[in-house]
């Protein structure tokens, strides 16, 4: 996956627009892979689903908490992607009081499919979801990649959370700093 260019897809996102007024001041906006990942260095982590235990207890809140540390090491943005629609991703970020991580809804699963990470979670009634992974993306290109062990489509996994932790990201970025790769 290292040095692989990201697939160019369009994401459908609901964004607040106060000029609309009323109880639901949101509009649909289309954003592309390039809108999110071109001309910057970012972290992307993908997970099986919003509001799920590991994702809500550890992964999303811990990336949010460590935002300043990541930024000090040259990361410009952190994105959380899931095969959920924009309504769910927005509600999850609001519920979790997420301020530093931007949500990317991959409701159609196209980005996840083209990344080779679309898997079945039918054993839990989820349908198609993303396998858990994280990556450093530098100008639309994968610089570093982590994915959880045991990827499968049979639903036999126990949703491992070993590789795609914020702590592993901190260690990698610290190593880059120590090696003077970016400074």
Please explain how this structure is put together.
The chain is α/β, with parallel strands linked by helices and 183 residues long. The protein has helices at residues 33-37, 53-65, 67-72, 86-96, 110-114, 166-178; strands spanning 10-16, 26-32, 41-47, 77-82, 101-105, 118-120, 128-130, 133-138, 141-147. It has a five-stranded mixed β-sheet. Strands 1-2 form a two-stranded antiparallel ribbon.
Question: Could you give the topology of this structure?
Answer:
Blueprint: E1 10-16, E2 26-32, H1 33-37, E3 41-47, H2 53-65, H3 67-72, E4 77-82, H4 86-96, E5 101-105, H5 110-114, E6 118-120, E7 128-130, E8 133-138, E9 141-147, H6 166-178
Parallel strand pairs: 3-4, 4-5
Antiparallel strand pairs: 1-2, 3-8, 6-7, 8-9
Distance between the termini: 25 Å
- What class, by secondary structure content? alpha/beta
Question: What is the approximate shape?
Answer: globular
Average of per-residue pLDDT values = 94
Number of helices: 6
Low-confidence runs: none
| Share in β-strands | 25-35%
Helix content: 25-40%
Give the oligomer, counting copies of the same chain as homo and different chains as hetero: single chain
Features:
alpha/beta; 183 residues; two-stranded antiparallel ribbon; 9 strands
Gist of the model:
With 183 residues, the protein is α/β, with parallel strands linked by helices.
